[in-house]
From TrEMBL:
CDD domains: SR_ResInv
Name recorded for this polypeptide: Resolvase/invertase-type recombinase catalytic domain-containing protein
A Pfam family matched in the record: Resolvase
Annotated SMART domains: Resolvase (SM00857)
Family: Belongs to the site-specific recombinase resolvase family.
Keywords: DNA integration, DNA recombination, DNA-binding
C-alpha cells in the first residue's frame, strides 16, 4: 500500500503550510503530497486529476477534511464513491467517521453515507453563504454611497479648461487626452458627463 496526501486551498494567496505540516506528521513524504490552489467547486484540478491517475487499488489518500476534497455536494459524493469502487482508501483527519475501511458492515456503511452527505451539503452551503455575505456587503456599501470597483475619474477645473480648448478647435482630441492623462473612452465619457452637467445648470 502506498500513501498519498491531497492539499487544497481556494486561491494562490492562501497558505498551505498548516496542511503540509499535518501531512508530514502523518508520515507522508513531500513527493507524495499533491497540492492545488483552486476552488473546491470544480473537480477538474490538475494535481487532483494527476493523483487519480497515479493511485492503485489498496493505496490510501489522506485529506485534512472533506472540504479540502471539494465543496460541491453531488460531485463530492460521486468522487468518494469512485475511490471506494476502485479500492482506494480515504482518510479524513477532521472527520474520521467517514474514513473508508475494509469492513463490510452494511449498517455502518449506510450511516457513513448519511454523515458524508450531510458534511458535503454543509461544505457546499458554506460557499453559498460566503457569496450571499459578499453580495450583502456590496449592497450595504452602495447604500452608504461607497464606490466599488475602479476609482472614478473626477471632472476637474483643469479638465474643463482643456475640454474647452478642444471644443474650440484650439487643440486636437488626441492632444487633449494626453494633457489630461485619460484614455479615449474615459475622455469622451467625461465629455458627455460635463455636457449633461451644463445642461442641468441651464
Amino acid at each position: 500500500m502506498k500513501r498519498f496526501a491531497y492539499i487544497r486551498v481556494s486561491s494562490k494567496e492562501q497558505n498551505v503550510d498548516r496542511q503540509l505540516e499535518t501531512m508530514k506528521k502523518e508520515g507522508i513524504e513531500e513527493r507524495d503530497i499533491f497540492i492545488d490552489k483552486l476552488s473546491g467547486r470544480n473537480y477538474e484540478r490538475p494535481q487532483y486529476q494527476l493523483l487519480k491517475q497515479l493511485i492503485r487499488e489498496g493505496d490510501e489518500i489522506v485529506f485534512d477534511s472533506i472540504t479540502r476534497m471539494g465543496r460541491s455536494m453531488n460531485d463530492t459524493l460521486k468522487e468518494y464513491e469512485w475511490f471506494v469502487e476502485n479500492g482506494v482508501k480515504l482518510k479524513f483527519i477532521k472527520e474520521p467517521m467517514i474514513n473508508t475501511t475494509d469492513e463490510e458492515d452494511v449498517l455502518q456503511q449506510a450511516i457513513q453515507k448519511v454523515i458524508l452527505t450531510i458534511l458535503a451539503a454543509f461544505a457546499e452551503k458554506e460557499i453559498q453563504d460566503t457569496k450571499i455575505r459578499q453580495f450583502e456587503g456590496i449592497a450595504a456599501a452602495k447604500l452608504k454611497g461607497k464606490h466599488l470597483g475602479r476609482p472614478k475619474t473626477e471632472i476637474t477645473s483643469f479638465f474643463i479648461e482643456i475640454h474647452e480648448q478642444w471644443k474650440k478647435n484650439q487643440i486636437t482630441a488626441t492632444e487633449a487626452m494626453k494633457r489630461v492623462g485619460m484614455s479615449k473612452t474615459t475622455f469622451y465619457r467625461k465629455s458627455k458627463e460635463l455636457k449633461w452637467e451644463n445642461q442641468k445648470e441651464k
